[in-house]
Amino acid sequence: MLKTWAEAQSYCRETFTDLATVENQDDHDRLQSILQGDGEYAWIGLYDDLTRWKWTLGNADFNSDTDFSNWKSNEPNNQYSKENCTVMNHVGRWRDYLCSEQRPAVCYYEQGPSRYILVTTQRTWHEARAFCRSKYTDLVSVRNRSENDHIISLQPKRAWIGLHRNLWAYWSDQSHSTFTNWNEGQPDNNGDTMESCAAVNTTTGTWWDVDCNSKHYFICEEFKIRHKKTFKLKFQSEADLNDPAVQQQILEQLHAKLEKHGLPDFKLRWVETDGQTFHKQKQEEEEGILV
């Protein structure tokens, strides 16, 4: 049965649970054991969401489909599957860019007489963010046309702004990606169409980025859930609990605790409500919902 990635996802969700998630070496070994070795591609659940970005100021979620954006035509294109930071040019158009490139930056200065500061020194995106945070408030966020026009007046030339995203960060079931098994040189997004879905080579077991609209075999995942329980957990921490890396660390610690108490057969995941996993309460506590 040959399907596009989206068609395969729908079929797996209707018939089983979802497209296959490979979270660790054990999952990979189980996947490898069912491959037939004919060299074809088979879809798995990993994908690269080009619409799911964050502003570094406050780590606020951004979605290209719903929020103000001013992308240049055919951007973001994630060339070579390595572009996950954003520059603005002198006419206010945005492009995704390789974060390790050295560019000027636009900082935001909340307490300053001028809120938008063009810093002409060439830095990588991460260096620029660190500089803006040390000297001003942060790299600039651009939430509407007026803010975009203010920054245009500075005449930036491919200058960093605060928009960034994680590459290949999510599985179809919305769990975060930490384990990978890419083939050498992959992912490379090196085709005429956007290659933002992952497939496994049925001979080698390695992963390739593939055009999501091409048709391939696919691998579904099925869970027999006897008891499903939802827990609300409260945390007090100075860390950003909506940071995927922090959430993953919490999951790993919970997983180790449960295994220690003789509960090895389970799967933990965070559930988002209104786009957030954790929500501040009156006592400045943080609460997350874990399934």
TrEMBL record:
Residues 1-108, 116-221 form the C-type lectin domain. It comes from the Eukaryota. Keywords: Disulfide bond. This is C-type lectin domain-containing protein.
